[in-house]
Amino acid sequence: MREDILLLVKKIFEGSQEARKIVSEHAYTTPVEYSHELSRLTGGKIHLKLENLQKTGSFKIRGALYKVSRLAGSVSGIVTASAGNHAQGVAYASSVFGLPCIVVMPESASITKIEAVKNFGAEVILHGKIYDDSEQKAIEIAEEREYAFIHPFDDPDVISGQGTIAWEMVEQISKIDTVIVPLGGGGLISGISTVMKNLTDSVEIIGVEPENVPKFAESLKLGRIAVTEVKPTIADGLATKRPGKNTFMVVRSLVDEIVTVNEDEIARAIHYLLEKEKVLAEGAGAAGVAALLGNKVDVRGKNVAVVISGGNIDLTAIYKLIIRALANSGKLAVIYGFVPDSPGNLSEVTGIIARHRGNIIDVIHHREDLRAPAWHTALKIVFEVESSQVVEKILAELESRGYRFEKM
């Protein structure tokens, strides 16, 4: 490695050792759970590091605590920019060390996250459509008020704080061959890879980022930091358009592989974790499991640690994701067809669905559908079934009774 990278890695590693005490005093040592089901599916021994159970609901509090602890006593206040987890982490850390805090959030930030930040005593300013607009505003405020600006991922102290996760995993898991880490701006994976590679050179570090925002994959391919188009993603916590200068150096030097996952794979992972593991993860937090379920990494015969980086997800988003996952698995069906607009027909149609153990969720009439034959009405029916094969049986029986329905 080049001398500048060696010095950066040395600083991060030494900082992580110091950060352990600060983090242990003000945050949780999160549990590790062995996943029998994921181990069966993948052929590896899969351990889940549950940072979704951390204070503020994500790992971000670690880096924030260490950074603010280093600033306490030398600054009059803290400013940061974030749409979510980093904002809560910095707001909490500032309250711990008695410093006023301003958080600049994009105008699109959810009410839930805005209120969470305010609950830790921070002042929230909404500015700009995307993070970059908010960051520029935060830097301006920091200069005006002579506050310290904390970058969400490209600060060595922040990276050191995130690295405390690795120290905990080494103590909690007897042997680790591979660590799978969600990859946003790179602060988390930089901290973890620095500590893990210093403790055991043979460990494999794999980063997972969304296909919709593959900034590290593209940057490494080009050999330089590249700006990537940010497309909408369920894993909004990973939606950074470019790597950081420091994180890019660390990732290029210490991370062994980067894989990407698509939106359906992330949604499936969130649903899987909730249904099978009883773990509530946000999109970013589920990225590592998405890579496993999508067969993006080969972990057969390996002891694997997967970081579930956070669990801050809106209830409405959970509902939509569950519906999406059920539909993709064939356990939720939507059919559309036309029936005579006279008594008894709806009852017969729903009776056929019930005989096949279908659980009807919704029935919607569309009398204004001009495609309907005279004296007929259009019906959209949403129902749960055991499998997609059952839907085909229901459609066949409906047709045998003179009702023409199609899957939507």
From TrEMBL:
> Which InterPro entries does the record cross-reference, listed alphabetically?
ACT-like_dom_sf (IPR045865), ACT_dom (IPR002912), ACT_ThrD-II-like (IPR044561), Ser/Thr_Dehydratase (IPR050147), Ser/Thr_deHydtase_PyrdxlP-BS (IPR000634), Thr_deHydtase_catblc (IPR005789), TrpB-like_PALP (IPR001926), TrpB-like_PALP_sf (IPR036052)
PROSITE patterns, sorted: ACT (PS51671), DEHYDRATASE_SER_THR (PS00165)
GO BP: isoleucine biosynthetic process; L-serine catabolic process; L-threonine catabolic process
- According to its UniProt record, which protein family does this protein belong to? Belongs to the serine/threonine dehydratase family.
The answer, when asked if Cell membrane is one of the entry's keywords, is no
A GO MF term:
pyridoxal phosphate binding
Please state every residue range assigned to the domain named ACT: 334-408
Which pathway is recorded for this entry? Amino-acid biosynthesis; L-isoleucine biosynthesis; 2-oxobutanoate from L-threonine: step 1/1
Supply the name of the protein: threonine ammonia-lyase
* EC number(s) from the headed UniProt entry: 4.3.1.19
Into which EC class is this enzyme placed?
lyase
